[in-house]
Amino acid sequence: MKKSKAYQPDLIESLRDASEAEGYLNATLEEDDPELFLVALRNVAETQEGVAQLAEKSKLNRESLYKDHGRGHRNPLM
């Protein structure tokens, strides 16, 4: 049996492209699962050198990315 390959490095590399990241986030929004969206947002943040950089580039407040989106859920951004 062939060993499986870790997908995370390839995913992060593909999300460096803005249109790929946008499509990825939109696809997770369609699932209507806030926790899934937060994981996707964390993955995109990783490509942008962290949440602080993502907040700056998106003109969002860093604290709101941590607090507002994680309300009622285990926040995977932390």
Describe, in plain words, how this protein is organized in 3D:
The longest helix has 14 residues. The C terminus is likely disordered. The chain is globular. By secondary structure, the protein is mainly alpha-helical. The protein has one domain. Helices cover 60% and strands 0% of the residues. Helix 2 runs antiparallel to helix 3 and helix 3 packs across helix 4. It contains five helices and no strands.
Describe the secondary-structure layout.
Elements: H1 8-14, H2 18-30, H3 34-47, H4 51-58, H5 62-66
Instruction: Give the helices and strands as they follow along the chain.
Output: HHHHH
Low-confidence stretches: 68-78
The gyration radius over C-alpha positions equals: 13 Å
Shape: globular
Number of E-state strands? 0
Q: How far is the first residue's CA from the last residue's CA?
A: 36 Å
Total number of helices: 5
Q: Helical amount among residues, as a percent range?
A: 55-70%
Beta-strand portion reads under 5%
How confident is the prediction overall: mean pLDDT?
78
Task: Supply the helix-strand structural class.
Answer: mainly alpha
Tell me the domain tally.
1
Report the major sheet: none
What is the gist of this entry?
This protein is an all-alpha fold and 78 residues long. The chain has helices at residues 8-14, 18-30, 34-47, 51-58, 62-66. It has one domain.
Structure keywords:
mainly alpha; 5 helices; globular
